[in-house]
Here is the input.
Amino acid sequence: MFRYPRSRAFTLALAAISTTLAACSGGGTTSSSGGGGGTVTPTPTPVSSACSLNSRQTWAAQQLDSWYLFPETLPANLSPAGYASVQDYIDALTATARAQGKDRYFTYITSIAEENAYYNSGSSAGFGVRFALDASNRLLVSESFEGAPALAVGIDRGTEILAIGTTSANLVTVSSLLASGGTNALNDALGPSDPGVTRAFQIRDAAGTRTVSVTKADYALTPVSTRYGAKVIDDGGRKVGYVNLRTFINTAETPLRNAFADFRAQGISEVIIDLRYNGGGLVSIADLVNNLLARDRTTSTVANYVTFRPSQSAQNETVYFTPQDQSIAPTRIAFIGTGGSASASELVMNTFIPYLGNRSALIGTNTYGKPVGQIALDRATCDDRLRVVAFALENAARQGAYYNGLAAFMGATCRASDDLSRQLGDPAEASTRAALDFLAGRACTSILAAPGGDVADGSGPTPQAGSAALAARPMELLRPQRPTTPQREVPGLF
Here is the structure.
């Protein structure tokens, strides 16, 4: 998800708006998104009618009337009566935009404390893994985070979860859970995102099959892995920079700067930006990534445009590149993406389409499709933060509206699988290998090609035959119905 504001001026404007509304309505809100990040302050108990359900629903509707990017889709009169929560009412208000594919539950109510804890430090609570279902409905670990409980007991990328229970005595197989209640049953079996929740897992990995017990705990999610997040790959004598960014949060700034400083020192001009599971985050960190890739841009060169609804057009902004001391001048960029790549991830990819054309490519599968972003409107008394879809983003060529994903917009695309048998960033891992092939000008199969059909949209020769493996249904990250803030930004997180 996109998180505005980008500028101090807009921060102050929103602060003034929030203060005025709180003074008039006297309220705040409660998170309706489920359990929360590790150091979250408990939601205050309402002390007046200002925090009643009706008051909170009415306040949310007022904000949509003022800020929603698609005001023509809002119902003229929709009573909050009959809606059991603030989020249910918001979902009803945004139903038309959702049916049009413009707002797929992007407008929501959450906790100020939970969100601030996540964006400032990566604070979360859980096992510290991403779960995904493959084409055979096997539950697999696509990534495991440093400093979190799962990795500490040996659960890492590629581990298969065979059964889940509260103890080893009541394990239920994943196949049985899916048969009885689909992914909702899996989510229920995994338990709430609260420290102290323990689950037993029967797992299978390279070491064999065994049962382990894991207790959810508070941890700080590292946005750039200390194991594989940033490195230089030697591809047959060619140096290629590799960065895997898990999420766009404030603590990503230092490792990103350090990685690009190393690339610049080594004269690297070809890079892989791995965003395959990155659901988005702060626009300021997306701007930083753009600028670290902009040594050959000037401060008068447009990076992208931010556009609000006509009644809020005073907030529109033209964003220019600002090269940094660590910036490089890429000649080719391979972006690794999947259906879990959204929002700020897509913003970064889209930014370079006008400048690199077919010298930048999307590797993997099509992205999620979210060319819009949210602002935050707060009612601090009740810990309410309303995230409202309020602006659209376009690149310098005014390209946006990629609601069906970025594949059709990119100058080049190369289909590749997500190879869980190898660690992220391993040169032999399928998507990383495809990215290296693109950078070297070797052939690839377009993401847009029909299954089994080959299209070379890199600069290499046309391949001779299709690949059934690449045509298989991609893995799908497991998502709860009511995600926490970390789960929105880190798809598959538990």
Q: What stands out?
A: The two ends are 18 Å apart (CA to CA).
